[in-house]
Specification:
Layout (H helix, E strand, L loop, with lengths): L13 H47 L3 E3 L4 E3 L11 H10 L12 H10 L22
Antiparallel strand pairs: 1-2
């Protein structure tokens, strides 16, 4: 059963707090949506300017330019990924190159492992827990 009565001491009743919270969340979501649309327009414009600067570097066969407003330069950015994790894992083990991988734990899998193996605690594992409040509309 829901408690809609005011708590002792004259503080604000939980029902009113939930209503206010939901209103504020709706206002926040609307602002975020508006800002995301504006930000997307700015980012698209910036992308077009960067493409023009890249084209300038290509046409002039140069790597950098200094202007009165500032400088720009082009560089090569590379990203690496795999579409075959099984083969990559085997390669890492066979060639003893664990440095090709990032060091982080999968949160969901670690939680599941600990729940299924309460007597096994991985060495060096740290856990941070905190209470949170989730508010939902009826």
């Amino acid at each position: 059963m829901e408690d809609t009565a005011a708590p002792a001491g004259g503080s604000v009743p939980p029902e009113k707090l939930v209503k206010v919270y939901l209103k504020m969340r709706e206002a926040r979501d609307k602002l975020v949506q508006e800002q995301e649309a504006a930000l997307q327009q700015v980012e698209e414009s910036m992308k077009r300017v960067k493409m023009a600067l890249l084209e300038y570097c290509k046409e002039q066969n140069i790597e950098s330019v200094r202007t009165g407003a500032g400088m720009f330069y082009r560089s090569v950015k590379q990203r690496y990924w795999t579409n075959d994790w099984e083969a990559m894992g085997k390669f890492v083990v066979e060639n003893n190159v664990p440095e090709l991988l990032e060091k982080r734990l999968h949160q969901g899998n670690t939680k599941t492992f600990l729940e299924q193996n309460p007597d096994l605690l991985p060495p060096g594992l740290n856990v941070d827990s905190e209470f949170t409040i989730t508010v939902r509309k009826n």
